[in-house]
């Protein structure tokens, strides 16, 4: 079974237990001959895939009535996997979604590490610091780096922890954010696991 999670910059494949990525700008999907079950948030790539009969769009098998119209399919699939809890996808943007007993309760989008770092740097070069994930978020900071880090991390941490639910972390920066969500579970394959659950519900393989 070949699964593919297609984002804005890459095709992320799972082939059995092996996962790998291909650059979205250079990869040619027509070179794949086997059947591929995919989700895609990249509209340009989605148009390329439409005429390829061996590429199966799993978003067509999801009950979207539980979600809002413009939510990304990757977020939906992650929610379908966890069933109950909060899933944080820490990538170029950070998405936070809450699910209670299989019901989607809502979520929000937060700037990713690079985006927020660039925002501070664009304000002033003296604010060009890396974020300190080791600082004590229970104390007000007394230096510039920690002040920036606190302003970014404390808001996110406080909102997520206020719900007192299981937290699942995924995405490229999951290990960094695990430093402020110490009880969180890191699951890099939460989207792929959700895809498998959708396939099982829809009885497709």
Automatic annotation (TrEMBL):
It catalyses: (R)-pantothenate + ATP = (R)-4'-phosphopantothenate + ADP + H(+). K(+) binds at residue 89. A monovalent cation. Ammonium or potassium. Keywords: ATP-binding, Coenzyme A biosynthesis, Cytoplasm, Kinase, Metal-binding, Nucleotide-binding, Potassium, Transferase. Its EC number is 2.7.1.33. NCBIfam families: baf, PRK13333.1. Homodimer. This is Type III pantothenate kinase. It comes from Candidatus Sulfurimonas marisnigri.
